[in-house]
């Protein structure tokens, strides 16, 4: 029976990263996967994570299952981190959450609840969006519609087109929004534009679903959550899927949370009960390691301060790199790359054709997606000149 299943091609992004690893070119540049890299090309472990891990190892007395909703410290800490400690939804007891295996697990749990509430729900996704959104939410049974978002001509958000498309989103539909540091384009909504989306939720009744995987990598922890906080003040209900993969460097520990802002405290509790049943069907219990680390950091003042300072340094490096990449590309090509400095987070579309992206790989060992999405953090002092001259050569 199983021998009927054919071999599938590798995931396009992971396949490219594997090709980059095998490339023996001394100046190869890997800008594929969305993993933060430091100036040595390594994805570092946060010192706060190492310290929390040491404390937990000393204290650990069991490997019995976690509670189904996960660690209480983690859930409460994530609610404060995402919404801000004094948020009215928190004060009103309308917020609940469950720990999930990474941002992907969190997104999946949210999608399961959307499907349970409305099997005919249409999920509106930005064009473009992170490609994994489609199989991750679609395999639950949800349908999709696109709203226009990124304008390659301006390298920014085409907000008028976004609003025009979302005018068709009805009550019972879901609008998926990137909380900050849009993947793949790096172009984010302004706070004013988040306000317009809140007006549309009030008028049309669709459910906002915010995916936030890069909080703290754009402008800072509070600034990056400002849009979703505003939305959560204005709308009756919403879902947030948050990831600790990037901002705590806990990628392989699979650490995330699905947070519900519900109409009433009773509904907030009901949503957790639904999430637990949905999780039981898929993976049963959440993994412990990453969430215990994150929970520990979020409740311990010293570890929290250390983590925040490390994150500020990481964010600063990304923004410095954005400027350096802009300067180098402009000097090498005599073209305008100002947009790279204006975007947020780890990603940017360079605006190259697929042919140019392929030539960069084949002729210069510079690896990016065919869409010309680059991981900014893959650039460093050693490879930036090769990167800029290779881009100039294919333009
Ligand atoms: C937009 C977006 N959402 C969610 C995730 C989920 O991340 P993870 O499951 O690794 O925590 C990612 C990871 O790359 C992402 O880019």
Strand % is 5-15%
What proportion of the residues is helical, as a percent range?
A: 40-55%
What does the overall shape look like? globular
Per CATH, the class of the largest domain reads Alpha Beta
Could you say how many structural domains there are in total? 2
Family: Belongs to the class-I pyridoxal-phosphate-dependent aminotransferase family.
Pfam families: Aminotran_1_2
Subunit structure: Homodimer.
GO molecular function, one term: L-tyrosine-2-oxoglutarate transaminase activity
Q: Describe it for me?
A:
The protein is an alpha/beta fold and 395 residues long. 47% of the residues lie in helices and 14% in strands. The chain has 2 domains: 11-45 and 304-394, Aspartate Aminotransferase, domain 1; 65-299, Aspartate Aminotransferase, domain 2 (3-Layer(aba) Sandwich). The protein has 15 helices and 13 strands. The strands form 4 sheets. It has a 7-stranded mixed beta sheet, with helices on both faces. Helix 3 (72-83) crosses helix 11, helix 11 packs across helix 12 (301-333) and helix 12 packs across helix 15. The longest helix is centred in the last third of the chain and has 33 residues, at 301-333. It is globular. Residues 34, 102-104, 130, 183, 211, 213, 243, 245, 251, 256 line the site of pyridoxal-5'-phosphate.
């Amino acid at each position: 029976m199983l021998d009927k299943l054919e071999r599938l091609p590798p995931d396009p992004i992971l396949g490219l990263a594997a090709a980059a690893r095998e490339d023996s070119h001394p100046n190869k540049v890997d800008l594929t996967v969305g993993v933060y890299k430091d100036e040595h090309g390594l994805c570092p472990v946060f010192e706060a994570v190492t310290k929390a891990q040491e404390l937990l190892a000393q204290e650990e007395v069991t490997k019995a299952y976690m509670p189904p909703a996960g660690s209480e410290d983690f859930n409460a800490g994530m609610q404060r981190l995402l919404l801000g400690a004094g948020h009215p939804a928190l004060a009103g007891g309308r917020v609940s959450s469950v720990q999930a295996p990474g941002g992907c697990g969190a997104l999946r749990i949210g999608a399961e609840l959307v499907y349970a509430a409305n099997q005919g729900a249409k999920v509106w996704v930005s064009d473009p969006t992170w490609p994994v959104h489609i199989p991750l939410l679609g395999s639950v049974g949800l349908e999709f519609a696109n709203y226009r978002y990124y304008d390659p001509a301006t390298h920014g958000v085409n907000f008028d087109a976004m609003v025009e498309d979302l005018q068709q989103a009805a009550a019972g539909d879901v609008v998926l929004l990137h909380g900050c540091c849009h993947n793949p384009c790096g172009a984010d909504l302004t706070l004013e534009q988040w306000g317009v989306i809140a007006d549309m939720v009030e008028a049309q009744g669709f459910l906002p679903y915010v995916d936030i995987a890069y909080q703290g990598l754009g402008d800072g922890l509070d600034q990056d959550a400002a849009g979703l906080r505003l939305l959560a003040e204005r709308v009756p209900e919403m879902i947030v899927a948050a990831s600790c993969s990037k901002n705590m460097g806990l990628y392989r520990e699979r650490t995330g949370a699905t947070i519900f802002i519900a109409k009433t405290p009773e509904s907030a509790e009901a949503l957790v009960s639904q999430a637990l049943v949905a999780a039981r069907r898929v993976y049963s219990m959440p993994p412990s390691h990453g969430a215990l680390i994150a929970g520990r950091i979020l409740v311990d003042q010293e570890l929290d301060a250390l983590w925040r300072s490390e994150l500020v340094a990481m964010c600063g490096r990304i923004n410095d790199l954005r400027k350096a990449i802009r300067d180098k590309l402009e000097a090498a090509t005599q073209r305008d790359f100002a947009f790279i400095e204006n975007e947020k987070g780890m990603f940017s579309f360079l605006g190259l054709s697929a042919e140019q992206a392929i030539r960069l790989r084949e002729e210069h060992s510079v690896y990016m997606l065919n869409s010309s999405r680059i991981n900014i953090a893959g650039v460093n002092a050693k490879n930036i000149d090769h990167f800029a001259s290779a881009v100039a050569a294919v333009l």
